[in-house]
Amino acid sequence: MDNMLHVSSSPHIHSGKTTQSIMRDVLIALLPATVAGTVIFGWRSLLVVAVCVASCILLEALFNLITKKEQTVGDLSAAVTGLLLGLNLPVNIPIWQCVIGCIFAILLVKCLFGGIGNNLVNPAITARVFMLVSFGSMAVQATPTIVDTVSGATPLVEIANGNSPSLTDLFLGTTGGAIGETCALALLIGFAYLLIRRVITWHIPVSFVGSVFLLSFFMEGFDFSAALSLILSGGLLIGAIFMATDYVTSPSTSAGKLIFGLGAGLLTFVIRYFSVYPEGVSFAILFMNILNPYIEKLTARKIFGGPRA
Amino acid sequence: MAFFLHGVHTPHRKNTADQPAARMTEVKTVTIPMSMHIGAPASPIVKVGDTVQVGTKIADSVGRVSLPIHASVSGKVTKISNILLSNGSTVPAITIESDGEMTPLSSVCAPTVNTREDLIQAIHDSGVVGLGGAGFPTHVKFNIDPQRLEELIINGAECEPYITSDSFTMVERADDMEYALRTLQQHFSIKRIIIGVESNKKKAIASMQAMADRMDGVEVKVLPSVYPQGGEKVLVYHTTKKVIPTGKLPIDVGCIVCNCTTVAAIGNYLKTGMPLVKKCVTVDGGSVSRPQNVIVPIGTSVSDVFDFCGGFTSEPYKVLYGGPMMGVSVPNLSAPILKNTNAVLALSEKEARLPKTTACIRCGACTNACPFGLAPAQIMRAYNKKDTDMLKKLSVDTCMLCGCCSFTCPAHLPLVQTNALSKQLLRDEKAKEEAKNG
Questions:
Q1: What is the C-alpha separation between A183 and A131, in angstroms, rounded?
Q2: Number of compact structural domains in chain B
Q3: What ipTM did this prediction achieve?
């Protein structure tokens, strides 16, 4: 029995929450949106999502293999990037474009910067923005297969044209848009799950969506339902709940999170109303990702007792 | 300046809280190290072959920060040799073979305490160290200008998982505590005595409240059960709202913090003259047959203590002195119980297996867990570059090594361990500079 015990420095217990368990929770939280997207837009949704998830995992595994790095796909972060990217694409996107997007997200944005934890911006968001400016197919949004609509435009375009979809359609997601972004109900279920599992806090999603709501409420002449339509439209909910809360690229303190959310909300509002793009969530998050280090510095916690005098 | 001190919700696992403490009297041999306190090791005053009783002084203190040591069993001194302690240091130790009688020293009697100096001498003679785990000689804390002491804070937080030996003290030894506190009140102009207890110890709170009701100037403060509530600076802040600056002591803000079992040990000595020779130790962990609190003669080997509790149900994976958050793991079971041992835990593999270390995901969980708002992940990056200026800026010296960061890190990075290394790096650098400047 002598010399058979394990010895290590304290602490000798761990919370049990690991990178892998966090990423698994995010995957679970995205399941309702994936299911809703498949129901709304048909089976091809699953194909798009599956290609993205598989490509991201495969690309990261290959990169690690070729560069002789420790294999990291087990932490499931590549799967999360793939799933998020897939859910942010329209159902009819050509498959080869999906793969290009994944290459951009995983190889350029993530792996070349040093892998998980070292990317400056969120891989899925950045890839989406890249695809948005590169591929015309991104702009032609799909039409839900389960309802009859004549237009293929997204609600934001429709609202701009003066024929706003009903709040019920927006809440259930039976409108045009990317696979995973339309169904507010599914996204809110995922949000609740992440909160319960303490994977994220309320600060970024609430300040992000809240600020867009208030600014839209003001711009729409204090029309409550119009403002509500605007926060249920486009990629706001999926962005605010799942992309803006990425640990690596968002602040860690509550104050920092609120600033991040408010900033993203303001930018989304500005882009939606005053730019040529109908949607601004991805740009807003990407921009705030870049500001993140400064927000972190600005909102660092006060040290109890201070540095040694 | 107001702070919100964070922390972590560790599992409680206070399995032994509701059981009576067992008394371990049949010990064959004890091995008593000369260094069970911070400061100079004591110097032996017995030799091999000498007969001793329970309470016989076997070693004397050396210098100002040191303590005498007393025999914990009656019997014969059989060996004086070096042993390896759980902290990795090698110190002389006196081995006594018990005659099985546990005869107390006949000359033991309550000390005469007329002045403050008498009281400090008595605390010194009792051999009492900080029994919460720190092991700092208690008399040194009280050797101050009495005007400086405003609040005496009694630490009954006991925030480490498993450990219930302080709860035992607060429930069963309130009389000893009361005696010590009354004597301290007589000789120091203490404005308030505040007993801080975590909310998960209902019986201890009731017992301490009853004691406070019997006395003047004593209050019980029930604290949230958040680790590390019992950290000195955390406790001082939560009981008095005073902030101890980094590098300063509680007395610099007018406070002294004493663990509740320390106070009880002082009380027992003032009442009876019997120095600190036994210790209530929580024996627990998934591999232990009968987890319980045991009152153990100091110097008893850990393996004897586990045997007393029915041995192991499964091969232990790790054996700890102290709790799982700050305790020390030992390579084998030969080491003795020390004055400041409050628990020995035999953790099963299931309890003690840790996740593998992966890359930092910059989630900020470490900073959010740190009671003091440090940024362990940044400290780690600075340490890896040996950037001592950055380490100073990040105030790594504020770290009390509570381990919240490592406990909570999803990548299981060795954060608190790196903080410890960083503090050592700064100490080394300072020593080098001082050597250079003569």
A1: 22
A2: 2
A3: 0.91
